[in-house]
Amino acid sequence: MRRARLRWLTSTLTAAILGLACEEPPPAQQPTGALCAKAADCYREVEHALLGTVFCETQFEDGYCTHTCETDEDCCAVEGECMPGIGHVCTPLTNDQTKRCWVSCEDDARLDADPMAYCFTHAGPGAVCRSSGGGSESRNICAPP
Prior knowledge:
The chain is built from three helices and six strands; from the N terminus they run αββββααββ.
């Protein structure tokens, strides 16, 4: 009985490991929130003129791709700009009048997902869910701390 249980456990673990190893690779990171060193690193598949002014937010470690906007609808308005199904918001950061697009971690964008896990998944390992600090236009965004 003990030997049969050990074989079953070994088979189950082997199948689980092989299943994980053979999974599809994760999708490429969406352009908004992607890592960058300069603006030219951002939105490589999208015509920059269609987006407004493109920024690589270098005050964040490893950079953060974004672009100017006036409303939430300006974010993800161009095909290839964002990963489908991921909410984005248009908001300024603290002490900055320029509104930019950010991956949203507001309740309606992430549904019931944990905010930090959501940001880790959709904006990269260094991202956290935090307030943009944009005064009366402050929103909850996924951004580096």
